[in-house]
UniProtKB/TrEMBL annotation:
Residues 247-312 form the Aminotransferase class V domain. This is Aminotransferase class V domain-containing protein. Transmembrane segments: none annotated. It comes from the Bacteria. It holds the Pfam family Aminotran_5. Signal peptide: none annotated. InterPro entries: Aminotrans_V_dom, PyrdxlP-dep_Trfase, PyrdxlP-dep_Trfase_major. Gene3D superfamilies: Type I PLP-dependent aspartate aminotransferase-like (Major domain) (3.40.640.10).
Amino acid sequence: MANAKYKFQLYRHLQASIPQIYGEAKKMADEIGIPPEIRGKFGLTGAISGCPAPLRKDVAEATERGGNEVIPLAKLVDEIREIVKDVYGDEWDVAPTSTCEAALWLCFDTLMTPPNLGRGDNYRARYIAPYEKHMHHQAAYGRPFPPKYKDLYADRGTTAGEYGFYGKRQNNLDTVIVPLAGAKYPVHGIKAHPVPLLTEVDPESAIEQMALAAEVHAPYLTGFTSIGYDTPGYGYGVKDEDGSPLLMKRIGELAHEYNVPFLVDNAWGIPFVGTDPRKVNADLIVYAMDKAAGAATSGLVIGREDLMVSVRRAIGMQGDRWGTTASYGKAAYVTFDPGKEALLSQVQALRTLRDNPEIMTRPVDDLERIVKEEFEKLNPKIRQGIIISKSYNSQAVEVNYEGTWKNNEIGFPIFAIEDMYAGSNILQTGLAQMGVIPTIAYDANIYISPGLGTTDEHGQIIENNMRYGVRALVQLMEIVGRHAGLV
């Protein structure tokens, strides 16, 4: 098509072109030469919950070996505590959980939600969240404020209403959503929705806006939260002299001014090698240990010891009532317990991160090289607006294309998260047509990571497989760009 005059015309045309795009994508998979035996069995990330990467050999062997032994679960939790304290110090503690979302729920309800017991009416509480990506996780545990955001997550997930994200909202808890200075929130996508574009976030101005919100809501304030990623596409590209995201660090400082917790959602991140909670003034940081860290499906909370007493009590790990240093008993959130195999895998994954971090960093270096080489072949009209960034924290390479929309010109199509849930994100569904399991590719931000049929049993890159996946993405972007009238 000729260049569209308005965005909705662009997305309307793309929707009509989906059958043709799929057909071209399937043919392109043959031209690229993706072997039939790996199609549908490899992809651009092993960090998606719905299709996690196979376990590394050392993690699988440790899990199987321990699974055949008699080991009290409290002993495994204490091993995890020891490893974390080896790196972060004795003032930090841990609580393993069944998933990262369970870890978030546990922390929000334990530390930021008003108490349920006692005479009289309950009071309301509020926590502050920057308007950033993945808000339906870290910012969905309270009712949104101001009301213009009240239906922000309605179309995310498999169902709406009480059974959807809104069912996570905690008792008498509100979420104050603060737009970030320098960010843009335009409407994009076939299923049109606002998307946060964050590469130009100004940390100092953004924290001023958050400080104003904190002052307004001070009588109700019980915490702050943010995502834990460290790349430009997530708004955390500006770093301090230690390499820590400046905005994240400032949020932590602000939280401490109000004597409330700062909770960092680092689901797609890893301990020790990634975002350091000490350097960003975080009080708690949570992980999906199956995404980037290499463990089996499970979550982990790492936090300051005083706060972790409450968290560990709530999940039944803090100690028996008659007096022990640790237990594995019953409590309000025992439903979030991880199993023995998950704990065993966490022990081994954390040992590797502590003792041999190069096992985790080397594949990211190799992936960055492959991504940069393959994206050099992309049409310059698209490529010139792309920023490629490496993240050891997320074991990923970020490809951000916000810059293709400079000077009020229509750029490369941007798909909203709602497009992913609706099946109308062509960058994801188109890859599936090529036999490549897709990664997240919304909000003009594509995260590529190893692990899903692209690494060997030791977690190292299989060059050909990784290159097939990245090359498929580049060629799909060429196809979509052509149908969008850019190429």
